[in-house]
Each structure stands twice: as structure tokens, then as C-alpha cells.
């Protein structure tokens, strides 16, 4: 199938916005069911399933040769070098508990590399997309931790401690610590100059693929390391100086894996 990049990106943008509009209305009806996946803190709703099915069906109709990878196990292996990576509701707990701070995340990968990303903050109606940088602000090369915010969650702090590192020592380097519970929106916060460093010890590809494309377009970076359970340790940061300041506080094994990648963005080819 012959298509232009403009057509592809336009279709993806309209698809995300349309899905978001319907999902917002569904949430306002307060009629959803919840199931546990791996435990009480890892849940899925029938709205997650609906959103992913809707996205997959529309993509399959328009680009039947493209592959699709989604959080809710609706995957398809196509014949094209293009792959869609979908998180239908990033921040499902926020979706259920508060009706805010959740997002639809869609990435377009070409030969395993994120080329374009769309992240929709559904309740606020804010769409983040690669290439939409306001004035294309470049991060301040002199930025240090004491001027920024560290985004880190309890599970990552626990993992640091279990691997012999002190997460509180890392946190003390920063002006403050925050955790939103929606990886894609927190990563967009780095791109928007709202914070300095984001660290998560167990992300899946769909959690950060779209954000990776957006961050790179804003002059930011993601350093990532593949873990044995097929998840990723991910660190997003605004400047090399900030990254180098924080790296010594990471667990030794994570530092080794990151150094193997040269501290660069991890390009995923095997999902």
C-alpha cells in the first residue's frame, strides 16, 4: 500500500483525538468494570479493552500491512516495517479513582525506532505530539538537580533499595519529588520544561515509545536498559549534566546496562 507520511501522521492524530473524545464521554458515565491483572495495583477496565479494540480496528482498516503492539494483548504481526505501539489508557488507576491524569499513548515505529508519537491528556484535551515544540526550546545545559523535580514512584524506590542503592539520596539532590501515576504525561512534563528527571524501573514499550519521539523533538533524552522480564529501566532527562549528576545514585547493574548503551536512547527492535 502506498501512502505519504503526511497522510499517515494525519490519520494517527485524528484517530487519537476521536478515541479520546469517546473515552472522555464513557468516563463521565461512571459505568465501567475493573479486573485485576497481576495484583490489586495492576488493573484493567472494560474501557481499556474498548479503547484498544477501537484503535486496532481503525488502524487495521487503514493500514492492514502494519504491525500493532498494545498493552491489552491485541497484537498483530504485519508485513510492513511500520509498527504501532498503543497504550489505550495510561494511568488506569487515575482513570478509575479520579477521572483525570490519564492518557492515550500511540507511537509509530519504523524498523523498531519511534518516529512519531501522540499522547493525549484526555480530560484536559491537550495533545502532545512530536514536532509541536513551542519555539523548539533547547534545555539549559547548565541545569542541575537542585533546580529541578524528580519524578519517581514507590516501586522504583523499592527496587533501588533492593539493589543496594539509596533512593532517598537521589531524591535529596532535587528541589522536590513528584509522582503522577501516568508515565506518558510525566515524560511529557520533562519535554515541557516542567521538571528535570524521570526514573522508572519497570516500564513496557507502550509506556514510553510515544514519549520518546516527543522528547527527542524537544532536545531531551531517554536512556533505557532492557531487563530480564522484558520491561525497561527508563530515565528521561533534560540535560547531560543532570543525567551525569544522577547516574551514580542508580543501582550498579542498571549503570552497567546504561553504559553498554552509551547512555543513548534504546532503540527497540524485538517487540
Note the main attributes of this structure.
271 residues, alpha/beta, D-Maltodextrin-Binding Protein, domain 2, 5-stranded mixed β-sheet, 25% strand
How would you sum up this structure, described in words?
The protein is an alpha/beta fold. The protein folds into two domains: 5-129, Fructose-1,6-Bisphosphatase, subunit A, domain 1 (Fructose-1,6-Bisphosphatase, Chain A, domain 1, 2-Layer Sandwich), CATH 3.30.540; 134-260, D-Maltodextrin-Binding Protein, domain 2 (3-Layer(aba) Sandwich), CATH 3.40.190. 37% of the residues lie in helices and 25% in strands. It is built from nine helices and twelve strands. The chain has helices at residues 5-28, 46-62, 92-97, 154-162, 167-171, 183-191, 205-217, 240-246, 252-260, and strands spanning 34-39, 42-45, 67-70, 82-90, 103-110, 113-121, 126-129, 149-151, 176-178, 197-203, 221-226, 232-237. The strands form three sheets. Strands 3-4-5-6-7 form a five-stranded mixed sheet, sandwiched between helices. A hairpin with a 4-residue loop joins strand 6 and strand 7. Residues 265-271 have low confidence and may be disordered.
Give a quick rundown of the structure.
The chain has helices spanning 5-28, 46-62, 92-97, 154-162, 167-171, 183-191, 205-217, 240-246, 252-260, and strands at 34-39, 42-45, 67-70, 82-90, 103-110, 113-121, 126-129, 149-151, 176-178, 197-203, 221-226, 232-237.
Amino acid at each position: 500500500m502506498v501512502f505519504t507520511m503526511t497522510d499517515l501522521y494525519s490519520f494517527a492524530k485524528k484517530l487519537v483525538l476521536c478515541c479520546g473524545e469517546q473515552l472522555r464521554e464513557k468516563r463521565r458515565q461512571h459505568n465501567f468494570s475493573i479486573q485485576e491483572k497481576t495484583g490489586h495495583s495492576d488493573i484493567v477496565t472494560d474501557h481499556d479493552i474498548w479503547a484498544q479494540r477501537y484503535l486496532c480496528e481503525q488502524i487495521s482498516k487503514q493500514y492492514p500491512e502494519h504491525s500493532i503492539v498494545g498493552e491489552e494483548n491485541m497484537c498483530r504481526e504485519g508485513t510492513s516495517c511500520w509498527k504501532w505501539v498503543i497504550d489505550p489508557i495510561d494511568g488506569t488507576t487515575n482513570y478509575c479513582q479520579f477521572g483525570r491524569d490519564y492518557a492515550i499513548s500511540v507511537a509509530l515505529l519504523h524498523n523498531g525506532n519511534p518516529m512519531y508519537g501522540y499522547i493525549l491528556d484526555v480530560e484536559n484535551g491537550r495533545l502532545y505530539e512530536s514536532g509541536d515544540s513551542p519555539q523548539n526550546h533547547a534545555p539549559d545545559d547548565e541545569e542541575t538537580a537542585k533546580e529541578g523535580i524528580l519524578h519517581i514512584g514507590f516501586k522504583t524506590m523499592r527496587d533501588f533499595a533492593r539493589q543496594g542503592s539509596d533512593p532517598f539520596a537521589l531524591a535529596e539532590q532535587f528541589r522536590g519529588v513528584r509522582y503522577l501515576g501516568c508515565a506518558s504525561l510525566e515524560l511529557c512534563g520533562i519535554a515541557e520544561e516542567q521538571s528535570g528527571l524521570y526514573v522508572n524501573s519497570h516500564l513496557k514499550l507502550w509506556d514510553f515509545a510515544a514519549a520518546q519521539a516527543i522528547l527527542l523533538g524537544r532536545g531531551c533524552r531517554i536512556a533505557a536498559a532492557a531487563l530480564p522480564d522484558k520491561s525497561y529501566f527508563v530515565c528521561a532527562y533534560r540535560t547531560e549534566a543532570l543525567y551525569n549528576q544522577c547516574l551514580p545514585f542508580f543501582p550498579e547493574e542498571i549503570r552497567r546496562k546504561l553504559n553498554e548503551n552509551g547512555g543513548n536512547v534504546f532503540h527497540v527492535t524485538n517487540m
